[in-house]
Amino acid sequence: MDINSLRSILTVVAFAVFIAIVWWAYSGQNKAAFDEAARLPFDGEDEGTGYGERK
Question: Dihedral of the CA atoms 26, 27, 31, 32 (nearest 10)?
């Protein structure tokens, strides 16, 4: 096995990991958790004065 074979195997493994991450991110079972995380910046807007806000 030479270095080019090792590089080819590593490329295929990296691509497989990329596909697995994309599949995980777009799977329906994670939608609720991602929706909750997307709302985090907007939760608690009335709690005190934030950065750049004036009272």
Answer: -150
